[in-house]
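pasting for the record
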Amino acid sequence: MIRVLHSVSNMARAGIETMLMNYYREMDRDQIQFDFLANKPVPGEYDEEIRAMGGRVFVSPGLNPLRFPRYRRFVAELLNENPDIKIVHAHNEAMGYYALKSAKDAGIGVRVAHAHNTQIIRDYKYPLKMVCKRLLPGAATDYWSCGRDAGIYYYGQKRWNASGFILHNAIDLDRFRFREDTRQGLRQRYGLEDRFVIGHVGRFNVQKNHTRLLDIFAKVAQAAPEARLALIGVGELEQPVREKAQALGVQDARGRGGGPGGGAALLLLRSGD
């Protein structure tokens, strides 16, 4: 059996993690097993399912600049103690350099960098991330991406054209096929029987651009006061989104029967509701 160690934030119900689980559930786990290096000390919704399928979740010291020496030692020891891990696959954008460099130092022959974005957000880690971005290709042996633009951004056009690989999302279509009873049940549950509903599933962070979505919905609401916007997700920008919705007059409709004067409102649903 070959074990693949995936470096992630944590195995929460988010995009990258769900993509990995979609593959994990369907593959021959007698031949290949997935393990996960969680870089946030917060349990993920998928942890229990992973363990039930034979996978392991290892919690690192975290991708904090002050802990990088400790982090590198942790990954090196993890790989040395688990020689059945033959592949390390990093999903941490530029910061995946640390897992891949540690894997390289430990003699792991297959090290996959996986680009999931076309830009680096300018936060307090931005200068460090830009350095890691330049170093990332040298720590990897394989260059994967969710799309061409992300691959070029992280690896450069020459390297991408030569050896880039796009891993497409794979889903079980039957889980998402239309079901009239499900539709009616959810509409009844949330009081949406006669509403025009726009749905959006995504974390509350800058990449998902809820700010623009709210601006658009505010215009829709002027033409269609019965409209509802269902935002499904969690994230650090949830409160700012709520505040902007309030400012635009399309605040949370759940339990209050709509916005000012009964007009269009924002229905803010959290994952798991």
